[in-house]
Amino acid sequence: MPLCQAENPDELQAAVLNALKSGDVEGAKELFEDLAVCRGDSALVIGSMYDPAQTMSGRPIEPDARKALHFYRYAAALGKVDEVRRRLSALKRSVQSDPELVREIADLAGALEHQH
User: Fold this and answer.
1) Cβ partners under 8 Å of residue 33, min gap 6
2) pTM
3) Nearest one of 26, 46, 24, 25 to 35, comparing CA atoms
4) Which of 6, 46, 65, 67 is the most buried (most CB within 10 A)?
5) Rounded CA separation 25/4 (Å)
């Protein structure tokens, strides 16, 4: 997993908010994805935005279960294990037609089972 490259994650978060305020959703998404490797809470948020199992009105990006899982891995690595564990079962149910992805989700859930 890549390490946080931001010299100042607070400045990166401010840049995300500025991009959103200016209507640059794509730019904000890219910056937020960079922030996600620095902060577990940010990784959870971007994971949720991609997660097809999460209900979100006005979702700014297209759901993508693989990307959701990608960011949930970061969130877990950054200490958000319990939150990720709760989201994985719903994500797994939403992708039953993709056995490979179901296995990847189950593998992560199994790895997290003994972490706190």
Assistant:
1) 46, 71
2) 0.84
3) 46
4) 46
5) 22
Q: What is the CA radius of gyration of the chain?
A: 14
- Residue of 89, 82, 75 lying closest to 112 (CA atoms): 82
Distance between CA 116 and CA 79 in Å, rounded? Answer: 8
Encode 44-63: b = buried (16+ Cβ within 10 Å), e = exposed.
bebbbbbbbbbeeeeeeeee
* Residue 71 vs residues 10, 45, 48, 87: alpha-carbon distances, Å: 19, 9, 9, 12
pLDDT of residue 106: 95
Is residue 12 within 8 Å of residue 31, measured between CB atoms? Answer: yes
Eight-class DSSP state of 2: P
Banded model confidence at residue 25, pLDDT cuts 50, 70, 90:
confident
Joined together, the tokens standing for residue 33 give: 């994805």
